[in-house]
Amino acid sequence: MKEFLKLIRWPNLLIVILTMMLMRYFVIEPLLGKISLIPANGIGEEITMTLQFPWFNFLLLVAATLFITAGGYVINDYFDIKTDLINRGKVIVGNKIPRRKAMMWHNIFNIAGVAAGFYISWKAGYLWMGLLFLIVSGLLYFYSASYKRQFLIGNIIVAVLTAMVPLMVILYEWPFLYRYYIINVGEPPDLSFLFYWIAGFSLFAFLTTLTREIIKDIEDFEGDLTYGRNTMPVVIGIPASKIVVTSLIIITIAMLYLVWGFFISDKITLVYLSVLVVIPLLLVIFQVFRSSDKKQLHSASTIMKVVMLTGILYSMVVKAILTWNLI
């Protein structure tokens, strides 16, 4: 069981669960709670907007996302046995877990994830949205089998798929909100601002994931070079890759402060972002440029993971600000 949990990267799966729960209950719900609407008949007290996506269907959405993600981790280890032996010195698939059993789990996870995805899409009234889960499942397979060996393509795919995790929450909440309030209120409000909020978290996830993936490629340079993988460090060199990492971090920091300056502008957010996001990102730049071995690069990668977590946890600050009117 211990090796199986390592294979499916259980800490990462917990972060997926945390992300989706926080987006729903700490961002979308308090934002909706700030909107009051006039009933359709114009009689009675104003209606405060609430979540409409049934909790059971939401749990299925989380489960579908977890299944597809776990399947992606399994197939990644399945195809990475040789390079992991060089880069990590140990492997799970082919050692602790037979290759055939790993492929079996990959198939089980993907079938379960796609099935759950089509079910919740049907309940949302848009069966075609289930294709998203099928496409993501296929992308993760081909990423492990081919795309991660190609220059930048694999990194971008992982970053995009990570950015989709928060977006899936609002994507499936939206149809239920629309159907309920188009009937029960006189004039439904423009809820596009919900997408903007979630898109902010998704963009942050994209940039930080892309940065971390490139750092990991620098860390895995030896194994990737040995087996002819065209990762960024192999193609343009380690020094140039470090410059790319630095550029992405600077872009991320600049966008954080621009968003704060134009749309939020409260002191709590400024302190939170500066202390728990920006300073660690600057530390990553320092670690990457001073790195001369895998240990320092691994440290930078770990800090990036912490930054990704603190970025997600900012949703708790959002809820506090909205609940207690701190702006």
Describe the protein's architecture and organization.
With 327 residues, this protein is an all-alpha fold. It has one domain (2-323). It contains 13 helices and 2 strands; from the N terminus they run ααββααααααααααα. A two-stranded antiparallel sheet has the order 1-2. It is globular. It starts with a helix and ends with a helix. The model has no long low-confidence stretch (mean pLDDT 91).
Q: What distinguishing features does this structure have?
A:
327 residues; mainly alpha; two-stranded antiparallel ribbon; 13 helices; 78% helix; globular
Describe the SSE topology.
Elements: H1 2-7, H2 10-32, E1 36-37, E2 47-48, H3 55-79, H4 81-87, H5 99-124, H6 131-145, H7 153-184, H8 192-219, H9 221-226, H10 232-236, H11 238-264, H12 267-290, H13 294-323
Antiparallel strand pairs: 1-2
Helix pairs in contact: 2-3, 2-7, 2-13, 3-5, 3-6, 5-6, 6-7, 7-8, 8-11, 8-13, 11-12, 12-13
Summary?
This protein is an all-alpha fold and 327 residues long. The protein is built from 13 helices and two strands; from the N terminus they run H-H-E-E-H-H-H-H-H-H-H-H-H-H-H.
Using the CA coordinates, give the radius of gyration.
21 Å
The residue-averaged pLDDT reads 91
What class do helices, strands and sheet pairing give? mainly alpha
Quick one: overall form?
globular
Query: What is the first-to-last residue Cα distance?
Result: 47 Å
* Count of discrete structural domains: 1
Tell me about the largest β-sheet: 2 strands, antiparallel
What is the number of beta strands? 2
Low-pLDDT stretches are: none
Task: Classify the beta-strand content into a percent band.
Answer: under 5%
Helicity, in percent?
over 70%
Helix-strand topology string: HHEEHHHHHHHHHHH
Strand order of the largest sheet: 1-2
Number of helices: 13
